[in-house]
């Protein structure tokens, strides 16, 4: 069997990482791993337990009792409960950056993420994949887009999913999360030195997918058969 390949896609919130990562993984037959969904599921567990996500000690206290599963069909389970939709709700979105800033929670989830990429080829998206989770990933992409482009995409996504939000709420949430994600002490959001930066503000999804496939082919020789 060929050695598994890891593709890391990092970047700020709503830069379109998951859409691209999912499509690229499907085209190449790789497994898609949405690490943001894992931080969101943990946040859900903290809120469900009646704990305050801004309280680090309380949030970390439930690490031993939280199990998170990413299913092949895209569903996310938290302690066996299907939380796929719930983890996109505004209450989780507005608290997840606190949870993602706690070192002990990150270490627990990073262990799971590394284990998932050991024996199979993956496209993993997040904030610290190229810098911390998979520093030896064969391909590292840092995907960015302007705040306006990101807010418009996230707003459209929320409307399609029936999640009630205003455009201003979306902009406020993105700006706040960008700040917390890039200023936390442990494994903050930043481009890996050996990443390829891709500004997708003016690109269509197909153009971004093609650009990412080309980068993967250049770095690894793996060619998409379409
Ligand atoms: O990609 P997303 O919006 O679903 O991510 C949710 C939050 O989790 C986001 O605020 C940043 C955080 N996150 C992180 O810190 N590290 C990751 N590898 C993935 C997400």
Overview of the structural elements:
The mean pLDDT is 95. A hairpin with a 2-residue loop joins strand 4 and strand 5 (81-82). The chain is built from 10 helices and 8 strands. It is α/β, with parallel strands linked by helices and 226 residues long. The longest helix is centred in the last third of the chain and has 17 residues, at 167-183. The chain has a single domain, classed as P-loop containing nucleotide triphosphate hydrolases (Rossmann fold, 3-Layer(aba) Sandwich). Helix 1 (17-28) crosses helix 10. It is globular. It has helices at 17-28, 35-48, 56-60, 90-93, 96-100, 103-116, 129-133, 147-160, 167-183, 205-220, and strands at residues 6-10, 31-34, 68-70, 76-78, 81-82, 122-126, 139-144, 196-199. The chain has a 5-stranded parallel beta sheet with strand order 2-6-1-7-8. The protein has a 3-stranded antiparallel beta sheet with strand order 3-4-5, with helices on one face. Helices cover 47% and strands 14% of the residues. It starts with 5 loop residues before the first strand and ends in a 6-residue tail after the last helix. 2'-deoxycytidine-5'-monophosphate binds at residues 13, 35-36, 39-40, 96-97, 100, 126-129, 177, 181.
């Amino acid at each position: 069997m060929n050695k598994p390949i890891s593709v890391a896609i990092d970047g700020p919130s709503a830069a379109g990482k998951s859409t691209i990562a999912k499509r690229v993984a499907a085209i190449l037959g790789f497994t898609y791993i949405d690490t943001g969904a894992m931080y969101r599921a943990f946040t859900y567990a903290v809120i469900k337990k009646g704990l305050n996500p801004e309280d680090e000690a309380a949030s970390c206290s439930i690490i031993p009792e939280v199990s998170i599963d990413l299913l092949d069909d895209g569903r996310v389970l938290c302690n066996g409960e299907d939380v796929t939709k719930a983890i996109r709700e505004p209450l989780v979105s507005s608290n997840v950056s606190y949870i993602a800033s706690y070192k002990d929670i990150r270490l627990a989830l990073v262990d799971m993420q590394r284990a998932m990429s050991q024996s199979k080829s993956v496209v993993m998206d997040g904030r610290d994949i190229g810098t911390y989770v998979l520093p030896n990933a064969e391909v590292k992409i840092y995907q960015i887009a302007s705040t306006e482009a990101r807010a418009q995409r996230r707003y459209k996504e929320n409307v399609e999913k029936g999640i009630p939000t205003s455009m201003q709420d979306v902009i406020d949430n993105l700006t706040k999360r960008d700040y917390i994600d890039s200023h936390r002490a442990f494994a903050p959001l930043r481009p890996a030195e050996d990443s390829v930066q891709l500004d997708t503000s003016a690109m269509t999804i197909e153009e971004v997918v093609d650009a990412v496939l080309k980068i993967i082919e250049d770095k690894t020789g793996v060619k998409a058969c379409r």
